[in-house]
Structures are given as C-alpha cells and as structure tokens.
Amino acid sequence: MRVGAVTVGQSPRSDITPEIAPLLPGVEILEGGALDGLGPEELEALRRQPRGEVLATRLRSGQEIVVGKDDVLPGVADQIARLERSGAEAILLLCTGSFPVMASTVPVLYPEAVLAQVVRAVFAGGRLGVLTPHPAQCAFQVKRWGEVVPGAVKAVAASPYPADAAAGLAEAAEELSAWGADLVAMDCLGYTTGMRDALRRRLERPVLLARTALARVTAELLGL
Are residues 99 and 119 in the same domain? Predict the structure, then answer.
C-alpha cells in the first residue's frame, strides 16, 4: 500500500515521515513538495513577497522558510497529481493551513480539518491554547479556532524549525500556563512528539499534536 505526503516546502520531510511511519504499518510513504526544484533566487522571491495566508515550512536543508499560500497552491496540486499517478491510495497534506479542496481521485486528508474535529470532540469549553510557528499567524489562528470551539482562544508563536526551538517552546509553554490554558493544540506539522511531550510536562494539561492526529486518522481510513 502506498500513501502520498505533500509538503508546502521541499521534500523529503525527514523531520515528519519517520515519525508517522510507525503509525502506518506496511505503508510506503511517497513524498513531494510544492517547492521541489526551485533554486535559491526563486525561493528568495517567495520569501520576500508572500501572497496569501502566511505558512511556515521547511526546506530540504532543514532551514525554515515562510511563504504565501497562494504561491504554493499550484505546486501542491501538481504533487497531488504526481503522487496519484505513482499509485498513492490516499494523500496527506503536511500543512495545517486552510486549503481549498484539491482535485483528486483518492482521499486527500487535510490536517486543519482533522485537528479541528479532534479538538472539537474533546474540548467542552474553557481556554484553548494554540501553538503556531510564526507571529504573523496569531491573529488569524485566534479567529479560526474561535469559530471551531466554545470558550477563549490564545495563540502563541514558537517555530519548530530553528536550532533553539526548545527555548522558544519553553517560553510559549510559560505564557500558555500563565494564561491558564485547559487544552493546547500544536497547529503545525513541524512540531514533533518530543515537543508535545515536553509541552505536556510543563503545562500538566492535555496537548494535541497535528502530525500524529493526521497519521492515526489515516490509519483508520485505510483499515490498518
């Protein structure tokens, strides 16, 4: 069985697929990236003038890049089509941004929808903390999550990509703890299970991680 994984950055996502693979036993993960094949000048142009919703993602080198959703949509569509032709029976979008339904003959799983439904199922009200990679995303995240759940929402920025990511996550945890978050959603595929576990220990509150929620729902869909 083959499953496609499309990043809005560059593939392979060696920070994601090895961690979700154990949750998809017997599945070959085929990868593609919206920015695959772009050179330094093209990447710099995208970084300099992002169009549409701001998305933080990762290059093949491990470097973070912030791009606009409108700039990556054609590449995402092309990669979905390519992975379909390669025999993928389902395709995972490795980004929690708000995306339109993409044309496909196989199921495409959108982490935004998966994470929102999981949070909605377990959050009865109170204070929802949202972890997001870039400060420019915070206002949008508060609005988006405020439409998903009852109660107050606070978004805090902490990128999972820099070498000192642990320090930024610790600061975010302190801020969410002081605010009194009852539940935290880690709203980026770049956050790891190690980051989730560290955040949970600091907060002593439930923490939901986008990448594992996506993989578990995919496993259920495929009957694994």
Answer: no
CATH number at residue 101: 3.40.50
The distance of Cα 187 from the centroid of its chain, to the nearest Å, equals: 6
Helix (H) / strand (E) containing 183: strand 183-186
- What does the alpha-carbon distance between residue 26 and residue 23 come to, in Å, rounded to a whole number? 9
User: How big is the CA angle at 46 (ends 41 and 47), to the nearest 5 degrees?
Assistant: 95
Report the distance separating Cα 99 and Cα 148, nearest Å.
16
Looking at 34-157, which runs of residues are DSSP E strands?
A: 54-58, 64-68, 91-93, 108-109, 127-132, 152-157
Residue 214 CA to residue 115 CA, distance in Å, equals 7
C-alpha span between 76 and 5 (Å, rounded)? 10
Predicted confidence (pLDDT) per residue in 169-219, tens digit:
999 999 999 999 999 999 999 999 999 999 999 999 999 999 999 999 999
What's the CA gap between 145 and 86, in Å, rounded?
35
**Rounded to whole angstroms, how far apart are CA atoms 212 and 176?**
22
